[in-house]
Write a structure and sequence with these properties.
4-stranded mixed sheet, single chain, globular, 8% helix, Ubiquitin-like (UB roll), 118 residues
Amino acid sequence: MSETNTVIDFGKMDGLVPGIVQDAATGAVLMLGFLNELSYAKSLESGFVTFWSRTRQKLWMKGETSGNRLRIVEARTDCDKDTLLFRVVVEGDGLVCHEGTVSCFTRGIEIARRKEGK
């Protein structure tokens, strides 16, 4: 199910929307970045996820130097049209994170467990 005229709401977060990147084959969440209208248009035009760097204040295509580009297989938005989901195939050696791992989400967080009934 795809819409050709979906309008993304860039107005809620100072012109940015979160972009979740998911491996199209495994379903693993690989990373999250932010896009503005320009980086969103560039992503759709090029077929590769392009983000807006909040720290450098410029466009950056993930993998432009490492070769681990994120080729878009499918793009979706949530019901509020203010978050993007990119299902991708990772080109190169598949290491998406700048720390040399497949996913940026590798650090576990301990959660307190409650006993049942309390």
